[in-house]
Amino acid sequence: MQANATNRENRWFPEIDSIATAHRVARQGVIASLILAGVTTAFAIAATQNTLPSELLELDEVFNPLLFVDALIYGAIAWGIQRMSRIAAIAGLSIYLLSRVLLHLSGMPTNLFGMAIVTLISVAFINAIRSTFAYHRFQLQQASEKPSE
Q1: What is the pTM of this model?
Q2: What is Dmax (Cα atoms) for the chain?
Q3: CA 129 to chain centre
Q4: Which of 98, 83, 97 is nearest to 128 (CA)?
Q5: How far, in Å, CA of 146 to CA of 141, rounded?
Q6: Could you tell me how far CA 89 lies from the centroid of its own chain?
Q7: Rounded CA gap, 21 and 60, in Å?
Q8: Are 78 and 124 in contact (CB under 8 A)?
Q9: pLDDT above 70 (res 93)
Q10: Which residues neighbour 32 within 8 Å (Cβ) at sequence distance 6 or greater?
Q11: Which residues lie below 8 Å from residue 137, measured CB to CB, with a gap of 6+?
Q12: Residue 139: CB partners within 8 Å, gap ≥ 6?
């Protein structure tokens, strides 16, 4: 029974015990950022072409061509996480959660599927934060273990 709980826990938050696993786990944040950049770009294009679904038309202050800026930000965050930037990983989670709060306050309807997506993306960014910090910790350990000549 205990082993199942541990395995389930590791699927959501895998152990980061080396530089290689830090890179692998950080990829979750990169993928989440790229997905967000793609979806945001699609909504920005739909807003410029006036082809938004009818239930989103009244939210024109949220869905507008300025979403291209958001897409660029998520693209930059993906690039930063790929380079193991702690700031990019923290910014990814912070900006994503802030955008979700703002969407909720603007009247955007939420459903169970949407909440599941928010959870998955948030976990991906949390893992990116964990892995970027672990990566830098491992880098420091390696530097201190090298003998000076």
Answers
A1: 0.83
A2: 69
A3: 9
A4: 83
A5: 9
A6: 7
A7: 42
A8: no
A9: yes
A10: 92, 96, 120, 121, 124, 125, 128
A11: none
A12: 19
Amino acid at 35: I
pLDDT at position 62 over 80: no
What's the length of the chain?
149
Q: List the structure tokens of 4.
A: 């199942």
The residue-averaged pLDDT of 15-27 equals 94
Contact indicator for 101, 110 with CB cutoff of 8 Å:
no
The residue ranges of every structural domain in the chain are 23-138
Q: Say how far apart CA 54 and CA 49 lie, in whole Å.
A: 13
Average pLDDT of the residues in 38-62: 72
Is the Cβ–Cβ distance between 110 and 104 less than 8 Å? Answer: yes
Query: What's the average model confidence in pLDDT over 82-105?
Result: 94
- Return d(Cα 123, Cα 145) in angstroms, integer: 32
**Mean predicted confidence (pLDDT) in 28-37:** 97
